[in-house]
Amino acid sequence: MTQKHTTPDGLVIVDKPSGFTSHDVVAKMRGIARTRRVGHAGTLDPMATGVLVLGVERATKLLGHLALTEKEYLGTIRLGQNTVTDDAEGEITSAADASRVTRDAIDSGIAKLTGAIMQVPSKVSAIKINGVRSYKRARDGEDFDIPARPVTVSSFAVYDVRDAVAEDGTQVLDLVVSVVCSSGTYIRALARDLGADLGVGGHLTALRRTRVGPYKIDAAKTLDRLQQELTVMPIADAASAAFPRWEVDAKRARLLLNGVRLELPEEYAGGGPVAVFGPEGRLLALVEEHKGKAKSLAVFG
């Protein structure tokens, strides 16, 4: 009799390779984990590498509730060239000598892009304009505008400034930067806007996401490594790390699983999702406060 393969429920922190879309990584993980139930939290551009959070089996129910609001990146911004995609994937649309741009001017430009700012996403982003993805409109040659959106760049630092000569002979500057920002911030839009402010144009040539919420690059595994050994953060550990923990006894666990809305202790009121654990540390549900009661967001049983 053959043993039935069971995939553990939990999160997988992937170090995404360059050239893969987030959907490519999900498809690959379905093969590795031998299950269709795989989802991702927050996309990462194909050019970029680094932290991509996946949910496997029942942990897919957690993904939409994880507060992955802050992200951290290391990247390279090239000053002196604009591209159609604001990154190295697109063709160059204009070039200007950037060799005379001073470090003071760079720091001043970065200061304007730090804090609470309004940002216009790249036209090749996945944002929907009247129900149609922006990148599709751009690909179809449409002329359209994307409204600016509020984002927060809590840290934008330059580690190194390197003189370089681009393939077309333009004198460019490559800035090695780190950015800590809110979800929904486009790093390539920061590169574009910094270049525009300095009058020479700019685009992103490399990007690595080093943190998403509490999940850091040192916990991430490459797809090759996961192929050899699937490392899953158990669903109970993932919920415990991401949400306040409320422990209930066997009687209240039974009531909760039968759809009864329990009184939510005051300490958890108004603070977002709460993970409910029953006896023996079993994850029962994710709930939120609604009129003093615990309303279920996802039930794990």
Automatic annotation (TrEMBL):
Broad enzyme group: isomerase
Domain called Pseudouridine synthase II N-terminal: residue spans: 31-187
Coiled coil: none
GO MF, one example: tRNA pseudouridine(55) synthase activity
Signal peptide annotation: none
Domain tRNA pseudouridine synthase II TruB subfamily 2 C-terminal stretches: 243-300
Catalytic activity line of the entry: uridine(55) in tRNA = pseudouridine(55) in tRNA
EC numbers, comma separated: 5.4.99.25
Active site annotation, chain numbering: 45
Matching CDD domains: PseudoU_synth_EcTruB
Matches recorded under Pfam families: TruB_C, TruB_C_2, TruB_N
Keywords, sorted A to Z: Isomerase, tRNA processing
Location of the tRNA pseudouridylate synthase B C-terminal domain: 188-230
Family recorded in the similarity comment: Belongs to the pseudouridine synthase TruB family. Type 1 subfamily.
Function: Responsible for synthesis of pseudouridine from uracil-55 in the psi GC loop of transfer RNAs.
Protein name per Swiss-Prot or TrEMBL: tRNA pseudouridine synthase B
Species of origin: Streptomyces albidocamelliae
